[in-house]
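We close this part of the discussion by returning to an individual protein. Part of our work consisted of pairing the sequence of a single chain with a tokenised description of its backbone. What the numbers capture is local backbone geometry rather than side-chain detail. The amino acid sequence and the backbone structure tokens for this protein are reproduced below.
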Amino acid sequence: MKKILLVFFYFATTLVACTNDECQEDLVLKDKIRSSILESKKTGKDFNFATVADFEWDSLIIIGSYYPLDRYSEASKVDLSCVNNLKRMENLQAIVFTKNRKVISMINHPEPDGAFEYTAYPLVYTKKNAVFKVMDVTKRREIKDSLQNFIVFYK
């Protein structure tokens, strides 16, 4: 009987955890990020998550289409089960903000609005290194520097 109650309690708390606001896509943030990336593309300035995400966060994880979440969870030491609430499909990258190793906000970012390239590690970015150069793919191919972060437009 105790085992049944423990299993029930586990699933009940998991269900409650995944219905919290941080487990829903933040559409306001999604629009701000999209607008800021397009502005950076137009002006040639770097895109900086620290200036766009105007809330307290300490790390950022960008998850590509179809990438196994358990690899990201393991590398970041963050429970990313909430990301399953987002549609995981081709041309969408999940952008997940965390604070104290807990998901606090997330969005699905369409790659046609600028694809985040995985040119530098770590998989987990901080406010200090979550800065990306924005460019057309033809210019990106000319740059040999793999130590920078890039947002690439493929059209």
